[in-house]
Automatic annotation (TrEMBL):
<dbReference type="GO" id="GO:0016747">
    <property type="term" value="F:acyltransferase activity, transferring groups other than amino-acyl groups"/>
</dbReference>
<feature type="transmembrane region" description="Helical">
    <location>
        <begin position="265"/>
        <end position="291"/>
    </location>
</feature>
<keyword id="KW-0732">Signal</keyword>
<keyword id="KW-0472">Membrane</keyword>
<feature type="transmembrane region" description="Helical">
    <location>
        <begin position="97"/>
        <end position="115"/>
    </location>
</feature>
<feature type="transmembrane region" description="Helical">
    <location>
        <begin position="188"/>
        <end position="208"/>
    </location>
</feature>
<dbReference type="InterPro" id="IPR002656">
    <property type="entry name" value="Acyl_transf_3_dom"/>
</dbReference>
<dbReference type="InterPro" id="IPR052728">
    <property type="entry name" value="O2_lipid_transport_reg"/>
</dbReference>
<feature type="transmembrane region" description="Helical">
    <location>
        <begin position="376"/>
        <end position="397"/>
    </location>
</feature>
<protein>
    <recommendedName>
        <fullName>Acyltransferase 3 domain-containing protein</fullName>
    </recommendedName>
</protein>
<feature type="transmembrane region" description="Helical">
    <location>
        <begin position="336"/>
        <end position="356"/>
    </location>
</feature>
<feature type="signal peptide">
    <location>
        <begin position="1"/>
        <end position="19"/>
    </location>
</feature>
<keyword id="KW-0812">Transmembrane</keyword>
<dbReference type="Pfam" id="PF01757">
    <property type="entry name" value="Acyl_transf_3"/>
</dbReference>
<keyword id="KW-1133">Transmembrane helix</keyword>
<feature type="transmembrane region" description="Helical">
    <location>
        <begin position="231"/>
        <end position="253"/>
    </location>
</feature>
<feature type="transmembrane region" description="Helical">
    <location>
        <begin position="311"/>
        <end position="329"/>
    </location>
</feature>
Length: 421
């Protein structure tokens, strides 16, 4: 399911194009509230305000494999669940740290050193130093320790790296799920949906009381910052799709590669429900900004509370149905080998595109024309350039580090198995 993560990443980049050209126009025109006016336009509101949901899909896709990774040494899937004691926790932590941290460190170094020589423009210094350099000078260490979503959520070093903090914290917490599942099975795992529902209820009540809205540009600055501090960055709030992925991974483990029969009417209904949920989340902004619902606190609070985990559930069903052999043409498309190399570079894509857009917007000298053709033109060009930069980053840093890590593991294993004289 590499393509699922890749498609999520592409839509993230497209949404980032929309948000960065909004900031571009705001600065060029010197209109403080230009972005709010633009967000009220139906078409741009979708592109601008729904990019965060895609990240939930990545959480679900990454962590549904957690149980499989714990038993990866048994390729025949005849692993006894009670052999979980063989699960190497230090190796899990080290691998994930080496997977994401060196690449992030390289980009932080680039941002603090040579990026200032890579562009120019009337707002270049404002964008570079105001959104990247100053934050990285003060908080590079929290980024590398993956704690900035709690320690400095309003001054994130490289804006997209907050997700890596959440990602690594979830990896650190994974044994707290795996070991109880080892001892208690479904008796423990049934507590996870309870936690998810509890978080949704809490989020709904807080959104209702404080006026939080899914269209963050419709809130006051203070309400926006408070909602991000309380419900956007914290791992304990954002972990719903991760828990859904854990449950999905456990279901796959229990099936042990067996295919189950799904009634065609049930399968069709679930596919319609899943795709409908995704479309509703993406297009729900239309209704929420209409006259009838613009001031409807209950509608905004429900959308604010339910969108995240609903997206994760929809992705989980698509994965489950495809794995059970009911994906038909969709599964064949998702499993095309052409997606594999691009999927492997998803981390480099995710990190490098922010720095590229910082240079792109900071170097703008004229206002951007907001029309469909212009947006698609920008998107296509940005995808090509981002792919080139991500490929360079992956070949020079990300993949070599992983190869060195694998070599060290193999060397240690060979020394361990080598008979003593």
């Amino acid at each position: 399911m590499t393509i699922v993560r890749l498609l999520i990443l592409v839509t993230l980049i497209f949404n980032f194009v929309a948000s960065t050209v909004i900031d571009d126009a705001k600065c060029d025109a010197q209109l403080e509230y230009f972005d709010q006016a633009l967000s009220k336009h139906e078409k741009w509101a979708i592109e601008y305000d729904t990019k965060v949901e895609k990240i939930q899909g990545k959480h679900c896709m990454i962590f549904y494999r957690a149980l499989e990774n714990a038993t990866e040494h048994e390729s025949d899937r005849k692993f006894n669940w009670r052999e979980m004691k063989k699960f190497n926790i230090p190796k899990l932590y080290l691998h994930r740290f080496l997977r994401v941290t060196p690449v992030l460190a390289i980009l932080i170094l680039i941002a603090l050193s040579i990026m200032k020589f890579m562009g120019s423009g009337p707002y270049f210094n404002f964008f570079l130093f105001g959104t990247t350099v100053s934050q990285c000078q003060d908080y590079y260490w929290t980024a590398l320790l993956h704690i900035q979503n709690y320690y400095n959520p309003r001054d994130v070093c490289i804006s997209s790296s907050w997700y890596l903090s959440v990602d690594y914290q979830l990896v650190l917490l994974s044994p707290l799920i795996l070991y109880p599942a080892y001892y208690f099975g479904w008796k423990f795992l049934w507590t996870l949906p309870t936690y998810i529902i509890g978080i949704q209820i809490w989020t709904f009540i807080a959104a209702l009381e404080n006026g939080y809205k899914p269209i963050r540009r419709f809130m006051t600055y203070e309400a926006n910052q408070k909602s991000r501090d309380e419900f956007y960055f914290p791992t304990h709030i954002r972990c719903g799709p991760w828990l859904i992925g854990i449950i999905l991974g456990y279901i796959f483990y229990k099936l042990k590669n067996r295919k189950i029969s799904i009634n065609k009417y049930l399968n069709t209904s679930m596919w319609i429900l899943s795709i409908g949920t995704i479309v509703a989340i993406l297009l729900g902004i239309f209704g929420l900004q209409s006259v009838e619902y613009s001031d409807n606190k209950i509608a905004h609070a429900l959308f604010f509370a339910l969108q995240r985990n609903s997206w994760g559930l929809a992705i989980a069903w698509i994965v489950f149905s495809c794995e059970m052999g009911y994906g038909s043409v969709i599964r064949k498309f998702l499993e095309l080998p052409i997606w594999i190399p691009l999927g492997r570079m998803s981390l480099s894509f995710y990190l490098v595109h922010v720095l590229y857009f910082t240079l792109h917007v900071g170097s703008s000298r004229v206002p951007t024309n907001f029309d469909d053709f212009q947006m698609m033109h920008l998107f296509a060009g940005d995808i090509i350039v981002t792919t080139m930069l991500a490929t360079l980053l992956w070949l020079t840093f990300e993949e070599p580090i992983l190869l060195i890590e694998n070599f060290i593991y193999k060397f240690i294993e060979q020394r361990r198995l080598k008979p003593s004289k």
